[in-house]
Design goal:
Length: 334
């Protein structure tokens, strides 16, 4: 493989633009192809990167078999992730798969098994766990002493919820499209908890069901041996609640689950004390994960791929169990 990864993209929404522009800024990627069901949509996307000269495709098979591509970033609607990733892996391309990678652990098993058989990298894109301040946060957990609990929140009003209130059923809130808040914003808080504390022993989800039948948000309680973690996610309202980790010696606090501006430790023995731990945030919020994706692919770092596979499995086990317990079933699920 050349020094740069020639990247194809599936999906032309804002997250794909962010990933492409931020990955190009690393100097490790080039944009080689764009897939959309409509040629005009693919062209409109590619025209924002005129120096890249990306090929345009309305056939996924043709993009997957483009011999000039090394890897494909997939950010299509959730329902299509599984089949599209299989197509791309079978064509011999590495895959960077936007979260949620799959609806079920069985689907994830199939995809990672195929990637291993083909000796290809498959990695789920969780931008926040690669942020430098998130890593500082994780390293600082021992400062709180014995863990007593944590709360992690991500609540952001969605314009799509306005459509629901008007009687529509947008894909993000449609179970038939593998939608719902738990597998959207909720994945961020679950992924953060699994990365910080490991996979929980059990969990319980208390969803808020909206008119489409999907969850517009909810509270998820993760149970660990000696403490609980409360996760809150919603696309029906905004919240400024910070995220916190509680321990016998003090408190770690950070303002948001993604794009973390600061990390602070409040010592219980020193009332009013606040130790700033975080550094300056990377303004290109997907650059750090793109750098790690490039490194794993270019170095064929199978250990790192396995490490993130374990993380992805922990996340999907939590979300799948929570959905099934509440009857939030996707196509093909009984």
């Amino acid at each position: 493989m050349a020094a740069k990864i020639n990247l194809g993209v599936v999906g032309t929404g804002w997250i794909t633009h962010d990933y492409v522009s931020h990955s190009l800024s690393t100097g490790k990627f080039s944009l080689g192809a764009v897939y959309s069901r409509k040629h005009d949509t693919a062209k409109e996307f590619a025209d924002r990167y005129p120096d890249q000269k990306a090929a345009l495709y309305t056939s996924l098979d043709e993009l997957a078999n483009d011999k000039n591509l090394d890897a494909v970033y997939i950010a299509s609607p959730n329902l299509f992730h599984y089949e599209q990733t299989k197509t791309v892996l079978n064509a011999g391309k590495h895959v960077i798969l936007e979260k949620p990678a799959a609806a079920t652990e069985k689907q994830l098993d199939d995809l990672f098994r195929l990637a291993q058989e083909k000796k290809l990298v498959l990695v789920e894109a969780f931008r926040h766990v690669h942020e430098s301040n998130f890593k500082i946060l994780k390293q600082a957990i021992p400062k709180v002493g014995k863990l007593l609990g944590a709360s992690i929140s991500y609540c952001q009003f969605s314009s799509r919820f306005n459509a629901v209130l008007q009687g529509e059923k947008p894909a993000v809130f449609d179970l038939a499209m593998a939608g719902g808040t738990l597998v959207d914003l909720g994945v961020y808080v679950v992924a953060a908890a699994v990365e910080l504390f490991g996979e929980p022993e059990s969990s319980t989800y208390y969803p808020v069901i909206i008119a489409t039948g999907a969850d517009g948000g909810g509270t998820l309680i993760l149970r660990y041996k000696d403490f609980h973690v409360t996760l809150t996610a919603s696309k029906t309202f905004n919240s400024t609640a910070p995220c916190e980790i509680y321990g016998e010696k003090g408190l770690l606090v950070w303002p948001t689950v993604t794009d973390i501006e600061s990390v602070a430790f409040l010592d219980s023995a020193k009332k009013g004390s606040r130790e700033e731990l975080g550094g300056k945030r990377e303004p290109l919020n997907l650059k750090e994960e793109a750098l790690e994706h490039a490194r794993i692919i270019l170095e064929r770092d199978w250990d790192a791929m396995k490490r993130w596979e374990v993380h992805s499995r922990g996340v999907v086990r939590v979300t799948e169990a929570a959905r099934r317990a509440n009857g939030l079933l996707f196509p093909g699920e009984a």
